[in-house]
Amino acid sequence: MGRWLALDIGKKRTGIAVTDILKLIPNGLGYVETNQLLPFLQNYTSKESVEKIIIGYPKQADGSDSESMRYIQPLVGKIKKAFPSIPIDWADERYTTTIAQRSMIEGGIKKMKRREKGLADEIAAVIILRDYMEANLPPTIHN
């Protein structure tokens, strides 16, 4: 049993989020420069069991592919080749960056900290993972 790892791939940076081992809570894992994503994943998967990778699928408001798929698709191909035993799934990432920015403001994060672009990428990855978990895991029973 492994964790689920979510990626919000951007041209410059990739936000990363991961579930706990029981897949109850999504947590931010930080961000890396996108050109360092494969080495990061190799290092992380050598230490932690990853059951699935969820990748944010950038779409336009009308549902068509975003322009960013030009550079995301080849990178996903490299990830599949490097980790053939880990299934990859896509999750709609529309509006996650906007939601991340709003969450930082509502959470009281100071303006200087909000300018740290990687933070928004990490929060967007958490949102992608949370939404994916809600859609793909059975609800927990509370007494």
From TrEMBL:
Keywords: Cytoplasm, Hydrolase, Nuclease, Ribosome biogenesis
Every YqgF/RNase H-like domain range: 2-100
Main location: cytoplasm
One matching Pfam family: RuvX
Protein name according to UniProt: Putative pre-16S rRNA nuclease
Function: Could be a nuclease involved in processing of the 5'-end of pre-16S rRNA.
Protein family per UniProt: Belongs to the YqgF HJR family.
CDD domains (UniProt xref): YqgF
Top EC category: hydrolase
